[in-house]
Automatic annotation (TrEMBL):
Residues 9-207 form the N-(5'phosphoribosyl) anthranilate isomerase (PRAI) domain. Its EC number is 5.3.1.24. This is N-(5'-phosphoribosyl)anthranilate isomerase. The keyword Isomerase applies. One of its GO terms (molecular function) is isomerase activity. Keywords: Amino-acid biosynthesis, Aromatic amino acid biosynthesis, Isomerase, Tryptophan biosynthesis.
Length: 211
């Protein structure tokens, strides 16, 4: 996909005014983390800011090894349109969520020893993959991985690129070529504190990427 058309996902949003400010940029996806051990775990009352979402921006719930029933309840209560699974979820769980009418994104942490063959059993039950860096936490570690490793990825499922992405990587993103690259996931490198995004920096990133 040409870099000008890459989807933009901003993940780990937490605070109402910050979310409202971000909505002015009309990102394609906004992610909310429902994992209590994360410093970006969202505790704000959903009703406070659910009305500020604009058409064209999808709400993504990020879960880590959560029970399907709880995920589906969150989807119903909060109007989530996609779930991002960031733990050790099986293909069976992905299928169950997808059959419930959800878009499903499965995250994988990629390192030098990552086995791409394991993705085959997920290919028929996921709409997207997200490739992140290995780190001590399920996500939001703020570190890069070697994107060239993804040249080993040959499946048809489109993917988001994640892991320590910042403004300094814009030229690299423009020059990166992979037929299934679908979007860019922004998180910790654009924060002033966990869950609080510097919206001006996000705006600058999007503007320069799509210039």
């Amino acid at each position: 996909m040409p870099y000008r058309k890459l989807k933009i996902k901003v993940c780990g949003m937490k605070y109402t005014e910050n979310i409202e400010e971000l909505m002015q940029l009309q990102p394609d996806y906004v992610g909310f983390i429902f994992y209590e051990r994360s410093p970006r775990f969202i505790t704000t009352q959903w009703a406070v800011f659910s009305s500020i979402f604009k058409q064209g921006t999808s709400k993504v719930g990020v879960f880590v090894d959560e029970e399907v029933e709880i995920i589906l309840q969150k989807v119903t209560d909060l109007g989530l349109e996609m779930v991002q699974l960031h733990g050790h979820e099986t293909p069976y769980i992905c299928r169950e969520l997808r059959e419930a009418g959800l878009k499903v994104m499965k995250a994988f942490r990629v390192g030098d020893d990552f086995e791409f063959d394991q993705l085959k059993e997920y290919a028929t039950v996921c709409d997207y993959f997200l490739f992140d860096a290995s780190g001590p936490h399920p996500g939001g570690n703020g570190v890069r991985f070697n994107w060239e490793l993804l040249q080993k990825y040959k499946l048809d499922v489109p993917f988001f690129l994640s892991g320590g992405i910042s403004e300094e990587h814009i030229d690299e993103i423009r020059n990166y070529r992979h037929p299934q690259l679908y979007g860019i996931d922004l998180n910790s490198k654009f924060e002033t504190s966990p869950g609080m995004k510097d919206v001006e920096r996000v705006k600058d990133f999007i503007k320069k990427l799509r210039a």
